[in-house]
Design goal:
- By secondary structure, this protein is mainly alpha-helical.
- The chain has one domain.
- The chain is about 60% helix and about 0% strand.
- The chain is extended, with a radius of gyration of 23 Å.
Length: about 170
């Protein structure tokens, strides 16, 4: 055996044992810095699944791939009033318990058809926190999708301001 390859292998093993615990550690915080909202990893995962249900991945990119849940969190944190932020936090907790009660399991474990049917019932649920939360998330998700780099470069064909010259345009 070559001594250099043995030392290299030993260093790989030592580095792996140092990095491995960090892979399984839950920090209990959101993955982005938020000034006004307090969101846990579980809340962020629920919001990620909700956004993926609103904008599913087909032949185009979906909500998870475009990280729209982070856009929603950042916009609510930066651009909404403290009352809206409190309603968002209450609505997130209400949505989690409501979906658990309606589906019989967590929102993430449900199938896409069940999620879509559940979201169809959300505006008519009668709970003001849930209705306001769903409205905020839906509006910001659509805004984030339509303004994403993927949509603006691949789906929307933008022409500069004067556009093309058309000599046969009727005047």
């Amino acid at each position: 055996m070559n001594r250099r390859s043995a030392v290299r292998t030993l260093l790989y093993i030592a580095g792996g044992t140092l990095v491995l615990p960090a892979c399984f550690h839950e920090s209990r915080k959101a993955t982005i810095a938020l000034a006004n909202l307090s969101v846990t990893e579980a809340d962020e995962a629920l919001l990620e699944e909700l956004v993926e249900t609103l904008v599913p991945a087909t032949d185009t990119a979906g909500g998870k791939e475009l990280l729209l849940h982070l856009f929603v969190l950042k916009m609510i944190d930066d651009c909404h009033s403290p009352e809206d932020q409190q309603a968002f936090t209450k609505g997130l907790a209400t949505f989690s318990s409501w979906s658990q009660k309606e589906l019989g399991r967590s929102f993430a474990e449900a199938g896409i058809d069940e999620r879509t049917a559940l979201l169809g019932k959300a505006p008519d649920s009668g709970d003001s926190n849930l209705v306001q939360f769903y409205g905020l998330v839906k509006r910001r998700t659509i805004q984030g999708y339509m303004n994403s780099q993927y949509v603006m470069t691949n789906l929307v064909k933008y022409e500069l301001v004067p556009g093309r010259y058309n000599g046969y345009f009727p005047v």
